[in-house]
Amino acid sequence: MLTEQSAATVRATLPAVGGAIGEITERFYARLFNAHPDLLRNLFNRGNQAAGTQRQALAGSIAAFATHLLDHPDRRPDAMLARIAHKHASLGVAPEQYDVVHEHLFAAIAEVLGEAVTPEVAAAWDEVYWLMANALIAVEKRLYEESGGPGLRPWEVVERVEETADVVTLRLRPADGGPVAGFRAGQYVSVGVTLADGARQIRQYSLSGAPGETVRQISVKRVHGAASPDGEVSNHLHAHVRPGAVLELSEPYGDLVLSGAPDTPLLLASAGIGVTPMIAMLADLAAGGHRAPVTVVHGDRSPADHALRADHTAYAGKLPDASVHLFYERDAEPGTRTGLVDLADIAVRPGTRAYLCGPLPFMRAVRAQLTAKGVAPADIHYEVFGPDLWLAKG
């Protein structure tokens, strides 16, 4: 909770800081990478930095956190903090790195806002920063304790499956022959690779296999037509990784996991490669003998582009009360629909808990349709591949 004096100062200066937050985060990253170039090569996603999406995500999270402190002084935005903390833990972020971020972020604020940053203003926003940072550090500490600590572990590729022209599934086992920890359906792992220029880049991929298997499975979509470095890791995995190759994987993280009472109706909506966490969820539900209604919705360019389609429909078919609705932009087959996902004539039962994964415009559209059908916003959960721009885009 902010002190009364800091809350008044943050409220008065939030419009100015919010209006300049894009420039502030741009200056921040420039300063950070100038002082610590290894962070850009070996930790931060170079594609997201080049596209500016990481700056947007950071700006959105800061503004959202400060606004929440003012509007709800008696509670923290735990859902937002958990999402960020899981991503940080998958990357192995350490507590001391928050001091580095603080140094360069507040220098950037001073550069952009100049004389407006009085000692009182600096102290108030310093309080905001450390409330957020210390909350994240605490959650990340708990996650590390549960997972056995930060860091990536070598895993050997034992099988490669070409799912579609642009999606490949890799099945991996620990290179040291050690045990494989379980995971919760919907979680992801960080995958580290060393690229041709020597940079060590890390990306997150949802686990697309069934929980409880003795191997880990990820399904990777190749990014086409994007300026380098966007897509550099997916293209590397497609072009160079075959059985026998060794990749570095983190332990599983992520907060898009099945929860709620066992008799709760579920809706699993995905588009494109967003199908991957849904496969794990359906496999888990089938293995657990889930009997409540499950509505499966998926949108894709065409049936040929629908990765893991056989698994998608097979796992749904093992559930006693499941309905499957497939939408394709072209080449729709009998029993499927042409066009974008539309829930207009799909029954959504009262009390439904929904899980969404796919491009942000798709999830925004589905969320709006679900709320219009009476689904409580608190019962709609989502996963974004890459920086979470949901808050950044308002």
UniProtKB/TrEMBL annotation:
CDD domains reported in the protein's UniProt record: FHb-globin_2, flavohem_like_fad_nad_binding
EC nos: 1.14.12.17
Gene Ontology molecular-function annotations: 2 iron, 2 sulfur cluster binding; FAD binding; heme binding; metal ion binding; nitric oxide dioxygenase NAD(P)H activity; oxygen binding; oxygen carrier activity
One Pfam family named in its UniProt record: Globin
Cofactor annotation: heme b
Protein name: nitric oxide dioxygenase
Entry keywords, A to Z: 2Fe-2S, Heme, Iron, Iron-sulfur, Metal-binding, NAD, NADP, Oxygen transport, Transport
Domain of life, per lineage: Bacteria
Gene Ontology annotations of biological process type: cellular response to nitrosative stress; nitric oxide catabolic process
Domain Globin per the UniProt entry, residue ranges: 1-141
Residue ranges of every copy of the FAD-binding FR-type domain listed in the record: 150-259
Family indicated by similarity: Belongs to the globin family. In the C-terminal section; belongs to the flavoprotein pyridine nucleotide cytochrome reductase family.
Catalytic activity: 2 nitric oxide + NADPH + 2 O2 = 2 nitrate + NADP(+) + H(+); 2 nitric oxide + NADH + 2 O2 = 2 nitrate + NAD(+) + H(+)
